[in-house]
């Protein structure tokens, strides 16, 4: 079995192919996750820029996007624990999705309430909470998807449906929010996007209970909302306290907006992964009953290293490189376009039908390719089209201000992003052990975006040194850097599970 097909495949009579209702639901869940992501990343960057926040500080706000890379910290909790009320009736996975929906709508409402950005620490607090609950939604939905549809043939269409929903959210967030902000202000934009992001909640609440579970629907809904409110308040309090301690510590040691803290933060984030790699000689010999393999906290991650052994290091290098170019470009592409002389409305129109159509085609072709072609071949094509999308911004910078030119650059970027994203999601899903779907997928996707998002936080400083041209040339070149690793990936074999 190759690395790209490492997931266990159930017996033929147990395989359930995605039906229309499943694809529609996952399209809607993708839509719900895509909306808030753009509201604490690209849209927030433009909002802060409109309020006069310096480019270097805009780069620091990109570190809010680090939270999804750290989801491995709390992902095991979603595999182990139920949500009070919700899970009793709808099951573990849907229970967490519903709680995350409550968190998303309240955090985005708070961002609407503080839309003047008078206090950047307060803006950062609610942006972090929005990122946390968005990530929690993705962890729960991904675990549910991998459990329901474990094979490559099943993953292709369900991932495409999920990413179609996610890309459609770009119209509402990337385009609709900007058009709303240009005409009605940032508060209105955030409030209406919050309402749209909440759409899956009533649909999930109306669904039948999970097999073997019962009780009153209204009782479960009421207790879930009450319990969820307590959890939301506690999460806000903990986040505020941690943020206060971190900001106070940074101020105490002289760190300010001009300080380069990237190496230090990157070093801290890498510690657990370096420790795991250093422990490989012991991990690969550990029996099924060893505490490190049975632990709730680290067992799912140890299992990944146990199955792939030293090849796990190569896999980690590959996944950290594959989407780096797109992540680097994400946070600063819109500020660059704005600096070229385009208005919010022009950017919004480009991020509307043009971006949606291009990304939908990219996602569709990527999802189709993984069901018809070898996975590693599809990964190579994805890297090339992603690089072309990044180079498109360099081309745009040397054209006269024209919406037609903007549409071309946007289409190239979104096609490449959608194609590479669809292929990559399927690849990572098939590396996961179905015994630990939520935690291991969170681990892989978290590590995949850790280094890129760390570097994105220093993007403003990088532009100051090499300019926008140099920055987007670099991001495009990085997209191609994963291709030389593909021949080595083709030789990787996963160990059979001995548990």
From TrEMBL:
Location comes to:
Membrane
State which residue ranges cross the membrane: 24-46, 53-75, 95-115, 122-141, 188-207, 219-244, 264-283, 304-322, 352-370, 377-398, 404-430, 442-465, 471-490
Q: Which UniProt keywords apply?
A: Membrane, Transmembrane, Transmembrane helix, Transport
The source's domain of life comes to: Bacteria
The keyword Membrane belongs to this UniProt entry's keyword annotation: yes
Q: Which Gene3D superfamilies match?
A: MFS general substrate transporter like domains
Membrane topology term: Multi-pass membrane protein
According to UniProt, the name of this protein is Permease
Protein's organism: Sphingomonas hankookensis
């Amino acid at each position: 079995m190759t690395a790209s097909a490492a997931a266990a495949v159930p017996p033929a009579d147990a395989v359930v192919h995605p039906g229309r209702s499943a694809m529609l639901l996952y399209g809607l869940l993708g839509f719900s996750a895509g909306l808030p992501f753009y509201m604490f990343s690209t849209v927030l960057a433009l909002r802060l820029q409109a309020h006069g926040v310096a480019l270097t500080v805009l780069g620091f706000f990109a570190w809010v996007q680090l939270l999804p890379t750290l989801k491995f910290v709390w992902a095991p909790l979603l595999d182990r624990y139920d949500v009070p009320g919700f899970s009793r009736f709808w099951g573990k996975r849907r229970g967490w999705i519903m709680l995350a929906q409550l968190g998303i709508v309240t955090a985005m409402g708070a961002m609407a309430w503080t839309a003047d950005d008078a206090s950047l620490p307060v803006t950062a607090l609610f942006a972090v909470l929005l990122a946390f609950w968005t990530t929690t939604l993705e962890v729960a939905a991904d675990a549910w998807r991998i459990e329901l549809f474990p094979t490559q043939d099943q993953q292709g269409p369900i991932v495409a449906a999920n990413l179609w929903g996610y890309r459609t959210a770009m119209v509402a967030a990337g385009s609709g929010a900007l058009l709303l902000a240009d005409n009605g202000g940032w508060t209105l934009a955030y409030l209406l996007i919050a309402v749209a992001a909440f759409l899956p909640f009533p649909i999930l609440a109306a669904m039948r209970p999970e097999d073997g579970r019962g009780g009153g629907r209204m009782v479960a809904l009421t207790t879930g909302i009450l319990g969820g409110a307590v959890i939301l308040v506690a999460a806000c309090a903990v986040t505020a306290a941690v943020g206060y301690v971190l900001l106070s510590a940074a101020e105490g040691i002289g760190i300010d907006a001009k300080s380069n803290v990237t190496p230090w933060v990157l070093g801290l984030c890498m510690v657990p992964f370096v420790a795991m790699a250093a422990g490989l000689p012991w991990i690969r010999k550990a029996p099924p009953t060893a505490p490190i393999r049975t632990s709730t906290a680290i067992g799912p991650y140890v299992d990944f290293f146990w199955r792939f052994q030293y090849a796990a290091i190569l896999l980690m290098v590959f996944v950290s490189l594959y989407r780096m170019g797109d992540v680097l470009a994400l946070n600063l592409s819109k500020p660059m376009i704005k600096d070229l002389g385009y208005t919010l409305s022009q950017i919004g129109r480009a991020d509307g039908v043009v971006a949606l159509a291009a990304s939908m085609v990219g996602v569709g072709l990527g999802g189709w390719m993984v069901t018809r072609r070898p996975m590693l071949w599809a990964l190579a094509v994805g890297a090339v089209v992603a690089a072309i999308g990044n180079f498109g911004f360099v081309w745009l910078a040397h054209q006269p201000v024209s919406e037609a030119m903007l549409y071309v650059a946007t289409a190239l970027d979104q096609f490449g992003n959608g194609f590479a994203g669809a292929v990559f999601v399927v690849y990572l899903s098939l590396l996961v052990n179905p015994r630990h779907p939520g935690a291991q997928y969170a681990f892989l996707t978290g590590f995949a975006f850790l280094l890129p998002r760390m570097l994105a936080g220093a993007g403003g400083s990088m532009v100051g040194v090499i300019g926008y041209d140099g920055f987007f040339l670099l991001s495009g070149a990085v997209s191609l850097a994963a291709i030389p690793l593909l021949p080595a990936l083709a030789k990787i074999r996963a160990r059979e599970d001995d548990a």
